[in-house]
Write a structure and sequence with these properties.
This protein has 153 residues and is an alpha/beta fold. The chain has 7 helices and 5 strands; from the N terminus they run βααβααβααββα. The chain is globular, with a radius of gyration of 16 Å.
């Protein structure tokens, strides 16, 4: 089971994003019954897509309409209040600052049985979750069986 990070959602929705093709490929290849989206990731993707002064800025309703398609396709999961407080407590022993948001995503993955997080920002998760595989889209796509080219006639 995988959890898809917010940066894949953003890249898949923005055609001019440099990671658009690979991000889209992951989301198309992912098994809907074995792919998790953290509610935190949806919120983070919404914030990025609607941020001012970006070349690909979307209106709020448009951004949500696009993200809602992912929410309908994959399993949307979250931490309970108690799990969130516990995750913050655990993170306070490891670090501080904005990596907390990545920690919450990792804690969500663990709480819901994911073994892999697919993200463009693998370094953000360094050292936080030794029990999870943290891979880029290329790293996740590489082991997938490829459709062989058609045989020449």
């Amino acid at each position: 089971m995988i959890l898809v990070d917010s940066n894949l959602l953003v890249a898949a929705l923005v055609a001019q994003h440099p990671h658009h093709a690979e991000s889209s490929a992951v989301l198309l290849a992912a098994d809907p019954a074995a792919t998790l989206l953290a509610t935190h990731s949806l919120a983070e993707a919404f914030a990025v897509l609607t941020r001012r002064n970006l070349p690909f800025r979307l209106a709020g309703a448009q951004a949500w309409m696009q993200l809602e398609l992912f929410a309908a396709r994959f399993l949307v999961v979250s931490l309970t209040a108690a799990q969130t407080l516990d995750a913050i407590r655990r993170f306070s022993r490891l670090g501080n600052g904005p990596r907390l948001y990545d920690y919450l995503i990792g804690a969500t993955a663990e709480a819901h049985g994911a073994d892999t997080i697919v993200t463009w920002n693998t370094r953000d998760f360094d050292g936080l979750f030794p029990g999870l595989r943290i891979v880029t889209p290329a790293g996740w796509l590489a082991p997938l069986p490829q459709t062989p080219p058609p045989m020449p006639r």
